[in-house]
Write a structure and sequence with these properties.
Number of helices: 2
Structural class: alpha+beta
Order of helices and strands: EEEEEHH
Number of strands: 5
Shape: globular
Radius of gyration: 15 Å
Strand order of the largest sheet: 1-2-3-4-5
């Protein structure tokens, strides 16, 4: 696994396009499959298309993981998870959540 900073192209417009590039820290867990974070939790995403500048144009969210309390998200560092199996990663999340709740 490795940690990367990826650029995603978002369209925030409702009736007119409002395109914006958003940078996200991503933990690569498989080819074209990453874990990204937001304020409430993590997303496991499959990257389907990038442009010539390596900007993610299309992706599919496989699952959302919400942490309680939400502060746990900001306490978890992707680089500390790089050497763990996916199962061990989730075991540690459960332990953190239980301890903090």
């Amino acid at each position: 696994m490795e940690v990367l900073t990826l650029k995603y192209l978002y369209d925030f417009g409702i009736t007119e396009p409002e395109l914006e590039i958003v940078e996200k820290q991503a933990l690569v867990i498989a080819p074209n499959t990453v874990v990204t974070a937001n304020d409430e939790g993590w997303h496991i995403e499959v990257i389907e298309e990038k442009d010539a500048d390596n900007i993610v144009l299309n992706w599919r969210t496989v699952t959302n993981i919400t942490f309680y309390p939400n502060e746990i998200v900001s306490e978890i560092d992707f680089t500390s998870l790089m050497e763990l199996s996916v199962a061990e990663m989730f075991r540690r999340f459960a332990a953190i959540s239980t301890k903090e709740a």
